[in-house]
Amino acid sequence: MRASCLFCSFFLLFAIVPVYTTAVISPWSDLTVSEISAPLTANPGYPYPINVTVENHGNATSGLISVGFYLSSDDHLSKNDTFIQVTTGDLLAPGASVKLTSLDTIPVSVSPGSYRLFAYVEDHEGDEQHLLDNTALLTAPVRVQTRPLPDTDTLKSETARILFSMTNEVRQANGVSPLIWDDDLASLAATYADRMAAQKFFSHTDPDGHDQSDRASAAGYNTVKEIEGGERIGVSENIAYIGTGNVATYGYVNPTDPESIATGIMTGWMKSPGHRANILDPLSDRIGVGLSYNGEYWYATQEFY
Predict the structure, then answer these.
(1) Fewer CB atoms near the end CB (10 Å): N or C, the chain?
(2) How does the average pLDDT of the chain come out, rounded?
(3) CA 259 to chain centre
(4) pLDDT for position 130
(5) Residue 151: count of CB within 10 angstroms of its CB
(6) Residue of 51, 37, 52, 31 whose CA lies nearest to 96
(7) Is residue 43 within 8 Å of residue 305, measured between CB atoms?
(8) Exposed, middle or buried, 153 (CB in 10 Å: 0-12/13-18/19+)?
(9) Distance from C-alpha of 300 to C-alpha of 305, rounded to nearest angstrom
(10) Is the pLDDT of residue 115 over 80?
(11) d(Cα 105, Cα 260) in Å, to the nearest integer?
(12) Residues linked to residue 15 through DSSP beta bridges, in sequence order
């Protein structure tokens, strides 16, 4: 028995606005947003890309760059406006500029309507004039429109199918025979993913003390396999959970795209020696994949036999 643990086209129309400022040399960094571009339509729950150029008009190297983006109902940025995302950059030398890209999901709490998009780059001061100097406004309003989100069950089945295909692609690339889809293993995988998501635990051993082979046997699955030179007992299992949006150490996971969700999960598994070994095990010839979503995280399970 082997088990491993967790790696515990929407660009429609862009407006680009140059922001002209008078450079005043000061004995510190002086960051400004000189250009901002973004789509003029946005959908809550879907990805939204924003591009900015940040310049340093001071005579000292800046700290790490942080640019926040806000939606406002009027032409003035205030603390009551809706923060939607942030992007960061490295230190910026005096007189230098850098282009940054932000990609995140428009919060589902944003109501439909017309908004102004602001970019604000943090710097050393915090007075009102500094707020004005370090703020850029997209020329045209952004129209936020409701768009139906993909059905969760459809995302589950599509992501499971893609993970199955990715697994066989990796096996074939490494000279290992592809796996056969097994409906019984898939049922075991989906049931366990649902249980982890509902009960908010993450382990190969469930709260009752049973591991994946125990659960397979209890469901009537034959866990004794004849192999060359003897028998192999047990089921191998990979588990994972992943959020959507910007995921630490990975990048952006699109909550509406099964390919993006599957790629994030598979990338984590392939970086983990135990998960990778299960995926490339030449003695396995069957697989089942199941997923579940608890409103915050995707849980994924692979069962191998």
Answers:
(1) N
(2) 90
(3) 11
(4) 59
(5) 10
(6) 31
(7) no
(8) exposed
(9) 17
(10) yes
(11) 13
(12) 38
Which among 93, 60, 72, 79 has a CA at the least distance from the CA of 126?
A: 79
Compute CA distances 181 → 108, 167, 176, 221, 280, whole Å: 36, 11, 16, 15, 15
Contact predicate 202/195, CB 8 Å = no
* pTM for this model (two decimals): 0.86
pLDDT attached to residue 5: 36
Nearest to 69 by CA among 39, 97, 27: 39
Whether the per-residue pLDDT at 25 is higher than 60: the answer is no
pLDDT tops 80 at residue 15:
no
Taking residue 163's Cβ as centre, other Cβ atoms within 10 Å add up to: 27
Q: Write phi, then psi, for 246 (nearest 5 degrees).
A: -85, 115
The residues pairing with 16 across neighbouring beta strands, listed in sequence order, are 37
State CA 261 to chain mean position distance.
7
Sequence letter at residue 269: W
Question: How far is the C-alpha of 162 from the C-alpha of 151, rounded, in Å?
Answer: 16
Whose CA is closest to 173, among 274, 276, 37? 276
